[in-house]
Amino acid sequence: MILLDGKATSARIKEQIARQVEEMVAAGGKRPHLTAILVGEDGASKTYVANKEKACAAAGFTSEVIRMSADTTQERLLAEVARLNADPDVDGFIVQLPLPRHIDENKVIEAIDPRKDVDGFHPENVGRMVLGLDSFVSATPYGIVRLLEEYGIETRGKHCVVLGRSNIVGRPIANLLSQKGNPGDCTVTICHSRTQNLASFTREADIIIAALGVPEFLKGDMVKDGVVVVDVGITRVSDDSPKGYHLAGDVAFDEVAPKASYITPVPGGVGPMTIVSLLQNTLKAASKRQGR
Fold this sequence. Notes:
Largest sheet: 6 strands, parallel
CATH class of the largest domain: Alpha Beta
CATH architecture of the largest domain: 3-Layer(aba) Sandwich
Number of domains: 2
Structural class: alpha/beta
């Protein structure tokens, strides 16, 4: 069993990005600028945005976090989105999800300029990705594909089972892995909460992408020997530790790892790859805006 080390892999990619940024600056360009809008006090979101800030600094980006209270109106948030769309200093920005319930996430996503949509959620970017055209690919699926590529994992002709059908992970990663190319050329099955006899699919899978958000859902008896497992889930599970919780993925790691050929840890697997993919998208946006 080999660990798919997202932390080490993302660090290498981050160094490559940092070199590209310095080359851009040396040629008279400006540093890429990423802005994040954080609405409310969600603990996981705050941690994630803080990690993005650190990653931006390490890669030589400039960055900003706009913090808005949980009672911010939808109109006020849309006005901030419009301001960032028009700001020439901002190459890309994200609106951290989830948003408070009184705000329509789809309306906010659709209001973002697709050219600055470095999260890859705007319908224009999603549509272009589905058609195999140049686009900003959602950061988590992009990170998964990069991780498989960096480890040289063969995907051509393999059966990939995706657990989860979200617009953020499940559907886009299924599309990416079914497209021509490498990584790609998979036969993909999407399973979800209404799939009957789900384990019959996972036992036949060569590659499993687990993105359900259900701690330790995938058990050892649900996979075959030699399977490649990518665990996207990360949930805070209460316990008696000093922190009061531990982080758990969607995979029962101790049961599945002995049967896997490759597997991601939680934390330290997909999470760091998501952040570095966001940086890659922002660098791409900055390069386009500077005509490079």
